[in-house]
Amino acid sequence: MRNYGAKAINLIPFLFEPMTKPHKNSHPDWSVLLQRIKDELESLSESDREWIKARLAVIEATQIALDELFCKAGGAESCAGCDGTCCGCGQHHITLTNLLAYLLEGEDPPAPDFSRTCPYLGEMGCRLPVARRPYNCITFFCEILDDRLDPAERKRLRTLDHQLRSQYLIVAERYPVATLRGLWIGLERSGEGQLLRSTDKDVLE
Ligand code: SF4
Ligand code: SF4
User: Fold this and answer.
1) Atom of ligand 2 nearest to the CA of 122
2) Among 32, 64, 113, 121, which is most buried by a count of CB atoms within 10 Å?
């Protein structure tokens, strides 16, 4: 879901990986977490920062292309009125990679609102811009939208999905806290350890 629409909808996840594991730390101190990531970014080498930026540039371009397909399928209209139906299970979707897209540009991501079904759900839909939206959200086309794609568009959707997933996974290979299972699960795994500890891998294994 991007920005709202549609009434009762039979949700059929397409290329969608729900994350059902509840996280223990559902209300982290957001400002402390942000500062922790900023501090680690500060001490990252220039080459590591450039490596992440290069991955983020591909992610951004791919997500914009996916959103063009979404708009072609009438997503903007259909989502108006759906009132966040498919965002009800989005609690765990944001990843460290999505936060880095803000922080590497010197911007702060919006603070999560844990009173919502997804902490990034606002009154007008998602508060995250297309280029910085989580992988699971940007690749999700509900049944209504999927039915409006022709075979060539559906094939393009699969190609873009594969390309995008690969980029997120490459980042997660190098920085495991950036797991596609979501930020909160990544944080649980890292404990008090370094969030941006690099494995030095830059390919999928
Ligand atoms: S993607 Fe489908 S289910 Fe989600 S808000 Fe849009 S129309 Fe509704
Ligand atoms: S981040 Fe949340 S509000 Fe935004 S599209 Fe994903 S589930 Fe919906």
Assistant:
1) 3
2) 121
